[in-house]
C-alpha cells in the first residue's frame, strides 16, 4: 500500500489495490488542500482570473463517492458520503474501497480510473492546458 508521499513521486500509475480512500484523503490533505491555484487568462486583450481551491468538503465530490452509494444508502445516511460529513466519515470510520465495492460494484468500477489517476491532479494543475471551445466552429455530423 502506497503512502501519500510515495504517490506524489510515482512515475507509473498505481494499481487500485495499492491505494485506498485513506491514502487518497491524506494525499489530498497534503498536496491539494493547502494550496490555491490561480490562473490568469487573457483573451482578446481582456484579462480574467480563476482560482481553484481544494477544500475538505469537495473531496468526496471529486472522487465520485456519493454517486457510488446514492442508491445503496438511505437519504438519512447519504451525508456520510458527501461534503464535510463525507470527509469526516472517511477519516473517522476507515471507510475503504471494499466498502464502496460492496455497496455498488458496477458504479465503483466505472469510477476506478478516477481513483487510480487521482495522484496526477497536482501535475495537471501545475501544467494546465486550456482549450478555447467555440460551438459555432463545430459542424454537425
Brief account:
The protein has 141 residues and is of the alpha+beta class. It is 44% helix and 11% strand. The chain contains eight helices and two strands, in the order H-H-E-E-H-H-H-H-H-H.
Describe this structure in words.
The chain contains 8 helices and 2 strands, in the order H-H-E-E-H-H-H-H-H-H. Strand 1 and strand 2 (46-53) form a beta hairpin. The chain has a two-stranded antiparallel sheet. The chain starts with a helix and ends in a 15-residue tail after the last helix. It is α+β, with helices and mostly antiparallel strands and 141 residues long.
- H/E element string? HHEEHHHHHH
Describe the sheet with the most strands: 2 strands, antiparallel
How far the N terminus sits from the C terminus, by CA atoms, comes to: 47 Å
Return residue spans where pLDDT drops below 50 for at least 5 consecutive residues.
none
Tell me the number of helical segments per DSSP (H or I, 4 or more residues long): 8
Number of strands: 2
Taken as a percent bin, the fraction of beta residues is 5-15%
User: Rg to the nearest angstrom?
Assistant: 18 Å
Helix fraction bin: 40-55%
Average pLDDT confidence is 93
Structural class from helices and strands?
Answer: alpha+beta
Shape: globular
Strand order of the largest sheet: 1-2
Write the layout of secondary structure elements.
Layout lengths: L3 H5 L12 H11 L4 E8 L2 E8 L5 H5 L1 H5 L13 H11 L3 H7 L1 H12 L4 H6 L15
Antiparallel strand pairs: 1-2
